[in-house]
Design a protein that fits this description.
32% of the residues lie in helices and 20% in strands. It is α+β, with helices and mostly antiparallel strands.
Length: 844
């Protein structure tokens, strides 16, 4: 026993100190002219977390010293950190690399196979980037026969850090709190990051959900590079709970994506599992497959390639979340986690080399099968477009083009499914195209599931996220010109007015335009009622919310106002119309009391422990990037000391909020003095529980089932009750300022939580309500249909001179729900206009 204990301790110490022999396979010949990561960095791998800039420096050094490595910078993050990819192959292949790339896109099989290894999309899952250093070094320095064969037959694209900003946030934390000696106690600060943690990017978004959505530059750069190469295989390296082991695909079989041909799941995943198992067996590491993780959502780094004739592999390693942490067995070292990822990477390369023919067959079958399905599909295409929202149209088309879908101009205006689509403002996407599988993924909403528990979303229809008018085309249709890029919208040039300027608020950029005008010193008003005016000899209808910029009631001269209008029109592409009279043909006049001034929003948002960082980040990103408006992000610990009178809008993302009554009373007093409080999801529940509003929650039905359920079925039974992410329909009051800019009362919303709001007792303040049969797409447990149907999606709750606006859901989900963003922005900009008359005479 004493000898065994000494051996175990010796093994443990080697894994902590991470000598080179611990990582690299035995009896390998390594080129001494290529510096190892340890030599370059000055410390053993695993003893310190490597900063992103040092990772980039090392890869560039390999580029300089090795004729096997070429490093390409593919872009930069929001935090201005470089995104690099190392292209690793033999010197001979490097001499014809562009030829290989082009032939690979054409489907040639007589060239080296292209694969991609990807690491560290979650910044606080850092072991894989350290493994990337080891992998690149090994491929650059190893001269054994197997490595040389790999380099001759493969082109390996290695992206060492998918999320540089998040990685550096976590790296700084882990290194800053590292002790000497190391502290393995899980309670130690090193193992418990401060909010929001390093998982996410600059704006606190999960980039492993963004491959499909392309919201952030990190993702757009990667997607562009992916389509330049179309690798046959991609890896995605992650970490999970400290007391777990190591996971590799195949995943949970009942949660595979039903649109993707099953050959991936039935044949290729199991074949490669043998290579991964052999790798883990060789170093004695435990592992599991077939549980927990799925391939349903198309936006994972391990699933996106599946929609383009390739295959993705997920690796999950138990996390030391620091340098050394206690587990239920022996302490888990950072070096150990790195070695497992390094071993999985080499196993992937070995499998790719050994299964080239299988991967070629996968791609060939994928595209031939897709074309067969497309020809048999009764839906021949989709037409889409919103004639009143050029900005949203452009964003949607750009997203389709980013995914390499064929998009065509509408040859002539048409009506389909009761909707009118205008030439020049609508497009068509045929289903019969090479990327048919991705077309279905972007447009379809109904999916047949084999399981009722989901790791993430159960639906992801892009066309509904954008609330985009669209229709299925089941008859043949004429295509116009194929578009490869969307030209910037050029609205009709505005002419100078001495009376007023008008603008429709239906365009997504309207709020950006309002704020830019306000920052230029312009007074902007909005109409609470519709009206009609003669413009260029024809009557034109102006809807609720139309922006009115009077000329005389300004601090600016007419000339300076005109310059401001032109500047904003250029920046936002919002169309302004000049009028020389306040007299209308129908409806109110421009001088009516129903035309109200829009107060410049001054926004505060609590952040910190208890607040959902993703929702807070989505709000920050929306206001930062799409409106250009600052938001004061105040830590909850400091909230009691803030002078709320300096703000007129408070946004509370979902989360668990202030337990003390004093803060709740402070917020209540601020609302009653005229503030607008906007709450999302759990924050809406908090407001109700704190008595800030008289609105109520829906009393949820309990599940009626067997009295006893087997213990092993508990997770699946309870998981089936969760709403992982589904799309529903609500009816929106488009005469309410929160509904301004919408042309259709029926709006798609995304729900991934269990906040059910009861409709208001007032007939005027249930702004948006779920329809009686609301489910559009995704999974919903049958017991929850009663909770969702007819419940409130948005409530207005006046209080004193102010008001609360309660959302049951997150209208800004993952930065992609353009359709419900508008409601949220309306609440910010027009919240001060929301009030109810106390008697009918006050409305006259």
């Amino acid at each position: 026993m004493r000898i065994l204990a000494i051996l175990l301790l010796s093994s443990f110490w080697v894994s902590v100190t991470a000598q080179p022999a611990y990582f690299y396979p035995a009896a390998r010949v390594l080129n001494p002219d290529i510096p190892s990561p340890e030599q370059f960095l000055g410390y053993p791998i695993g003893s310190h977390h490597t900063r992103h800039d040092k990772i980039v420096e090392y890869f560039k050094r390999l580029d300089q010293l090795s004729d096997r490595v070429v490093v390409e910078e593919i872009g930069e993050t929001i935090g201005h950190r470089a995104q690099i990819v190392a292209k690793i192959t033999s010197p001979a292949n490097h001499g014809r690399l562009e030829e290989i790339r082009k032939k690979n896109l054409e489907g040639a099989t007589d060239i080296p196979l292209v694969i991609q290894l990807g690491y560290n999309v979650h910044g606080n899952e850092p072991s894989s980037s350290e493994a990337a250093l080891l992998t690149a070094y090994y491929l650059a320095a190893s001269n054994d026969e197997e490595t040389l064969r790999w380099l001759n037959d493969l082109v390996i694209l290695l992206d060492p850090v998918y999320n540089p900003d998040g990685r550096d946030r976590h790296t700084h934390w882990a290194n800053m709190h590292k002790g000497s000696p190391l502290v393995a106690d899980p309670a130690d600060r090193e193992h418990n990051e401060a909010w929001p943690g390093g998982r996410t990017n600059h704006y606190w978004f999960d980039l492993n959900r963004d491959w499909f959505l392309g919201v952030h530059p990190e993702s757009r750069n990667r997607i562009r590079f992916f389509h330049q190469w179309r690798p046959y295989l991609m890896t995605d390296h992650h970490e999970m709970g400290t007391n777990s082991s190591f996971y590799f695909d195949p995943g949970k079989y009942t949660s595979n994506n039903p649109v993707v041909p099953p050959f991936i799941y039935d044949v290729v995943h199991p074949k490669f599992a043998g290579y991964f198992a052999n790798g883990m067996n060789s170093i004695g590491s435990l592992y599991f497959t077939g549980e927990v993780f799925d391939k349903l959502y198309p936006g994972y780094g391990s699933s996106y390639v599946n929609f383009y004739g390739g295959i993705g592999f997920l690796f999950e390693q138990a996390s030391s979340r620091g340098h050394l942490q206690e587990t239920t067995t022996i302490p888990l070292s950072f070096a150990f986690t790195i070695r497992n990822h390094f071993t999985a990477g080499l196993a992937t390369i070995r499998g790719s080399f050994g299964e080239k023919d299988l991967l070629h067959k996968l791609r060939q079958n994928f595209y031939s099968s897709a074309m067969t399905q497309a020809k048999a599909n009764p839906i021949k295409g989709y037409v889409f477009g919103d004639s009143k929202d050029n900005t949203r149209n452009r964003a949607f088309v750009n997203l389709l083009l980013m995914h390499q879908l064929e998009v065509y101009e509408l040859e002539q205006s048409m009506t389909a499914s009761g909707k009118t689509f205008e030439k020049g403002k609508a497009w068509v996407v045929p289903t019969e195209q090479a990327n048919y599988i991705m077309v279905r993924t972007a447009f379809e909403k109904e999916i047949v599931y084999r399981d009722s528990t989901f790791y993430d979303a159960s639906t992801w229809s892009l066309v509904h996220a954008f609330n985009m008018p669209h229709a299925e085309l089941k008859a043949t249709f004429a295509k116009g010109k194929r578009i490869m890029e969307v030209n910037p919208v050029k609205p009709t040039a505005v002419v100078k007015s001495n009376y007023a300027y008008l603008a429709d608020i239906a365009d997504y950029n309207a709020h950006q335009a309002i704020y830019q005008l306000q920052q230029a010193g312009v007074i902007v008003q909005t109409s609470l009622r519709p009206f009609g005016m003669v413009i260029n000899g024809a009557e034109r209808k102006f809807a609720h919310g139309t922006l009115v910029v009077p000329v005389q009631q300004q601090r600016l001269s007419a000339d300076k106002l005109f310059e401001a209008i032109k500047t904003v029109q250029t920046a936002t592409a919002l169309e302004f119309v000049s009028v020389e009279t306040g007299l209308t043909e129908t409806g109110i006049e421009l001088g009516s009391g129903q035309v109200r001034t829009v107060v410049t929003p001054k926004v505060i948002m609590p952040i910190g422990p208890g607040v959902a960082s993703a929702e807070a980040g989505e709000i920050w990103h929306l206001l930062d990037q799409r409106v250009g408006m600052p938001v004061a992000k105040v830590d909850v610990a400091n909230f009691g000391r803030v002078n709320l009178a300096a703000y007129n809008v408070m946004i509370m993302p979902g989360g668990n909020y202030f337990a003390d009554k004093a803060t709740a009373e402070k917020i209540r007093a601020w609302v009653q003095a005229g503030g607008t409080l906007i709450t999302l999801k759990g924050a809406s529940e908090w407001a109700i529980k704190q008595g800030l509003t008289k609105e109520k929650m829906v009393v949820q039905d309990t599940v009626k089932g067997p009295k006893r359920i087997n213990y092993e079925d508990a997770a699946d039974t309870e998981g089936a009750r969760q709403i992982g992410g589904s799309i529903f329909q609500v009816d929106l009051d488009i005469t309410n300022p929160i509904g301004f800019g919408y042309n259709d009362r029926k709006v798609s919303v995304y729900r991934n939580g269990r906040t059910f709001l009861k409709p208001s007792k007032s007939p005027y303040t249930t702004v948006a309500q779920y329809t009686p049969t609301p489910l559009i797409g995704g999974y919903l447990h049958k017991s929850d249909m009663k909770n969702v149907a007819n419940s409130a999606a948005v409530l207005l709750s006046p209080d004193g001179q102010g008001r609360l606006i309660l959302f049951s859901d997150n209208p800004n989900f993952r930065g992609t729900w353009y359709g419900t963003n508008k409601m949220f922005l309306n609440a910010i900009f027009f919240g001060n206009l929301l009030s109810l008359p106390t008697n009918p005479s006050e409305e006259e």
